[in-house]
Amino acid sequence: MSEVKSTDPDVASSHDEEITPSGPAKNIWSRIYHDPWFQVSLISFISFCNPGMYNALTGMGGSGQVDGTVAANSNVATHACTAGAALVLVGAFYKYLGPRLSLLIGGWTYALYAGSLLHFNRTANGAFVIAAGAILGLGAAFFWVAQGTIMVTYTNDSTRGRAIALFWVVFNLGGAIGSLASFGLNYHSKSGTVTDSTYIAYIVVMLFGWVLSVLVCSTESLSGKYHGKRISQDSKALNWSNLQRTIMETVKIVFDWRVMCLYPMFYNANVFYSYQQNTVNGKTFDLRTRSLNGALYWIAQMVGGLLMGSILDLNGINRRARAWIGWAVLFVTGMAIWGGGYKFQLWNDQRMQLGFKQDIDYKAGSQYLGPMFLYFFYGAYDSFWQSYCYWIIGAQSQNPVVNAVIVGTYSALKPAGGAMAWRINANKINAMSEFAMNWGLCIGSLVVAVPTVLTLRKGKDNVETDHC
What we know:
By secondary structure, the protein is mostly helical.
């Protein structure tokens, strides 16, 4: 497979010169702080506090409201704004901002969105929720490009799967804990909406995560344990020469055919949330059970991330073989899980026709257990999907400039797909049609990705082999 390399001569390899943090790292804190694995762990915990809590809200169905239409329309605004900002601005100009500033720009918007839901509980002002969703979309673009670039760049082929697993466990622990907290706070609620204290708790945690962003450092500050490429200070200068180089480099990466074959998978990464969260969870179960299901969904994500990360870090086999194994896991489990979903949707359509809605409680025995396990496996499959997407992005390069652009396209295309799906959900399209769209897009996008898997280089580590 031909290589996709950065055209920026100012991006230096750590193999060419050893770059260490400014000043000697004499104390323990400095050594820990500049360690790549500490930074991966830190971004995982920040994600726990920000998008993890956001996932807990949306996972309850309708963001904790009886009528999910306002939340669905807000999610359309969120995903659309993320798509535009990540594709046009954030990924291409990541090297000028760096991860810390990107996270500080983006992280506070999660608390704003939770605050808008608190405001909606008191005033029923849906316009503010939608506007906050749009602002969150812009902030999320900065957040996810920084997070993704750290996760896939600060590690290599032999450790990337574990880094993704670590992130997925810690990140989704936020959704699990948040959902369990909502389950407890709303256990005796008869209103169908969550309490004010639920939203206030989310706001506090989100703001704490945002403050932690000041501790994130870029590749040029990492210790000698980092073996990827670093960005020189000269290339960060905002001048016409650097901007021209950035634009040319971005165009080359975005239109590389191997990256383009992954675009349908990227687009599909957020498509199934609206169906699973609003249609399956939001319309089938009562409030406290929706919260419990949300916790199970994110716990399944943790389990799935660990499993897929372990598979993608298998020792003794080359990069392409691991890519094929991961692809096969997605295909086989996708057919099995969506096949079970088809049976559920037939059953639930019959219930809806009889007027049953938001009625199943977790104490309902066998009536609850089947849908509960399906929802659990839906969560696991999402973690399989996104873990694989991140892993194959990292398999293309260990250059932060290249990875930021590819992560930017990923961060743009997945909310673009999500915006489409949430809009379909807000328009109350037939549930079976929603389901069929999800299943078809999953399997179809896997087929389109086959050429990239076929041509992936076999080497066991990508330190010297940047693809794109």
